[in-house]
Amino acid sequence: MRTGPDTGNHKNKILINLASNEYFSSLQIKKFPYPVYHIDFRENKNGKLAGNSITNKKMKGVMANFIIRNRTENPEELKSFSEDGFTFSPAHSGEFHSHLSGVK
Fold it and tell me: How far apart are alpha carbons 33 and 17 in whole angstroms?
């Protein structure tokens, strides 16, 4: 019986959360033994950052494609994401171990 995800022989054992907040909150993440990276996307609307659930869902799919296409294994590589006008924004991200924001 498995008690968690199989990370195999990967040297960087992490979880990149591309799930919705509702789904992710139902997981028992406190038992997860590795760092978790939460990803979100926000747009600048009249000088204020705003999230849009449809855009966020679409961009999380684009991020998943980016990870697979680039065979991303190091969380630092996520910072090079630049798709559909969104780029990594250190100013709008929390601690790297907990939160990455893409801003358009």
Answer: 14
